[in-house]
Amino acid sequence: MVDNQETTGGRNWRRTLRITSIILAILLIALGIFNFGTIDLGDPINVILPVYYVFFGLMMIGAEVPCNFLLQKFLFISGYFGRGIFYIFVGTLCIRYHTVFQFIVAAFLMGVGIIYIFSSCSSCYKNFAAQNDQMKQEEEAKQNSQTELKQSI
What we know:
Elements: H1 2-37, H2 45-64, H3 68-73, H4 80-94, H5 100-152
Helix pairs in contact: 1-2, 1-5, 2-4, 4-5
């Protein structure tokens, strides 16, 4: 019964993180569209960044939904670690413009990225611990069989 509750809690937590990421992606796309209206042609980065915002926002939605085509082409966002690094990168891009709303979006993007990175480390640790336990059990079984073989001789 406890295992089911832990699994359900893990799914709810991941679902909340996924919904938060989709909302942030929509906000990022909105920032890109808004920044198209305020383009200063004197600085080329002001033209390129809004395009990146929209493209990266669409990539984030594709990663969270999940879109198999996108995940096959951009393998780094198929795992939690790569997705976390990507979110932190996109968050740093949002700091370019000096509005409070963009700083908030950037902070949340980087926060979600950090959570994804810690989630990947947590799942790696769980896999490592499970493999370690399995190796210990195999070693104990091997020692028991050797002991039984010695006793039978």
